[in-house]
Amino acid sequence: MGLTHLDENGRVVMVDVSEKSLTHRVARASGTIRMTREAFSAVMTDTIKKGNVLATAKVAAIMAAKNTANTIPLCHPLPIDQVSVDFFPHEDSSSIDAEVIVKVSGKTGVEMEALHAVGIALLTIYDMCKAVDKSMVIDGIRLMEKAGGKSGHYKRA
Predict the structure, then answer these.
(1) What is the spatial distance between Cα 53 and Cα 127, in angstroms, rounded to a whole number?
(2) Phi and psi (nearest 5°) for 67?
(3) Separation CA 36–CA 135 (nearest Å)
(4) Distance CA 126, CA 133 (A)
(5) Could you report how far apart the first and last alpha carbons of the chain are, in Å?
(6) If 69 and its partner were Cys, which of 24, 77, 78, 111 is the partner (CB 3.0–4.6 Å)?
């Protein structure tokens, strides 16, 4: 299979989706931020001076999903139907997993919107906690599942 974002001369192009049918599409992505126990405790007890970390990160993730095409050059702007954001704190490892599900009825997938939203959620947590812990690590941002469209269903093993 050739690269869809390159033309026959190897130049970058936006994929033409004008002839595609509207279908229901869903993507789920996740990622993790690890931090010190002090920072984790401050997030969990809502004592970070900038405000409620997870509430702010949730709004940031939703905004990111809706604005992905403004950040990633070849993404199509999509009329997002729904974005859900969940956080799963792990006290034993002082880490927080972020999971985002994005839904759309469109002509192209929403994987990038879900991945972008997870990244921005985790970056927002970092930004709000950096006064307490500059050593935080963000990793494992990945597509977990997608459904809809020509390529069908994918679920990470």
Answers:
(1) 9
(2) -120, 20
(3) 8
(4) 8
(5) 23
(6) 77
* Number of residues written out for the chain: 157
Which tokens hold the place of 151? 């390529």
Distance CA 141, CA 87 (A): 14
Compute the distance between CA of residue 33 and CA of residue 82 in angstroms, rounded to an integer: 24
Summarize the chain as % helix, strand, coil (round to 5): 30, 30, 40
Residue type, 87: F
Closest CA to 108 of 153, 72, 150: 150
Known catalytic residues?
Answer: 127
Sign of the four-CA dihedral 75, 80, 124, 42: negative
What are the φ and ψ backbone dihedral angles of 146, each rounded to 5 degrees? -145, 150
Using DSSP, state whether 79 is helix, strand or coil. coil
For residue range 59-79, what is the model confidence (pLDDT) as tens digits?
999 999 999 999 998 899 999
User: What gap in Å lies between CA 36 and CA 39, rounded to an integer?
Assistant: 5
pLDDT digits (tens, 9 = 90+) for 24-49: 999 999 999 999 999 999 999 999 99
Q: Can you say whether the dihedral through the CA atoms of 110, 116, 118, 121 is positive or negative?
A: negative
Tell me which CATH code domain 23-151 carries.
3.30.70.640
